[in-house]
Amino acid sequence: MGVLPASVRPIGPIINHHSINRMGNRSTFNIQLFDGFTDNLAFLIPLGIGLLTLSLLTFLGNAMVVHAIRTERKLHTVSNMFILSLAIADLIVGLIVMPLSSTYVIFGDWILGIFVCQLWLVIDYTASTASIFNLLILSLDRYWSIRSPLKYLCKRTKKRALAMIGIVWMISALWAIPIIGWHLWYNDGIRKHPNNVCETEFSDSVVFKITTSIANFLVPMTLMMILYYKIFREIKRRDTK
User: For the chain, which domains are there?
Assistant: First the structure.
């Protein structure tokens, strides 16, 4: 996200003393300034509206799920506890991650300082990882419920579900360690990114990024596909009896 297309960059940098000197005369400068201004506005206005709409829909959709599960007693089931945890993760994305990301894209520079940058990155990585792992434990719950219903129902308690959800969020929160401390271990305590760029300090570490991508995305997605395939096979096997 540090390098953005020229069309996404803010309007302000269009005007500087170098460009004025190159223009040569005032009329040419005014025409080019107006063209640059309108070109940027023509892109940024619909982009801002689109990003804001997407963020709002994400927030409202998941807020409705959270409200429904919390207020309707008949929805207070073990399965819905996993759905609630998933909705909270996506709610955080819609409420915090997406609006700040939209601001970054529209302005072209990070303007909120290092502290907010690191907080945003921690929340982003944590909520996104929690979302994927919540989907995984939800698929595990469905698989166990179909594969061994009687045996699993004895173990399928709210306490057990809370423990699984707690583990998911604790694992996801481990992202805070490399996001906050990477430069202390590998860059002699020096941040390599300027203050107007909000990016992780490990963004150039190919090994770390590949390893975490496998652990946080590829493995959970593969397991989910296997579990849902087994669920499909089990349902099909029962239908043929």
Answer: 6-240 (1.20.1070.10)
Which residues fall within 8 angstroms of residue 197, CB to CB, at 6 or more apart? 2, 109, 110
Question: Measured on CA atoms in the order 30, 33, 37, 39, is the torsion positive or negative?
Answer: positive
As a whole number of angstroms, the distance between CA 231 and CA 121 comes to 36
> How do the pLDDT tens digits run along the chain, 241 residues long?
443 333 333 333 333 333 333 334 434 444 444 444 445 767 777 887 888 899 999 999 999 999 999 999 899 999 999 999 999 999 999 999 999 998 888 888 899 999 999 999 999 999 999 999 999 999 999 999 888 888 888 888 999 999 999 999 999 999 999 999 988 888 777 888 888 999 998 888 899 999 999 999 999 999 999 999 999 988 888 777 6
CA 125 to chain centre: 6
Q: Which residues contact 33 (CB under 8 A, 6 or more apart)?
A: 14, 15
Both tokens of residue 148? 């061994």
The residue count of the chain comes to: 241
**Would you call 133 helix, strand, or coil by DSSP?**
helix
CB 155 within 8 A of CB 145: no
Within 8 A by CB and 6+ apart from 166, the residues are: none
Taking the model in full, what pTM does it have? 0.78
Rounded Cα gap, residues 8 and 10, in angstroms: 7
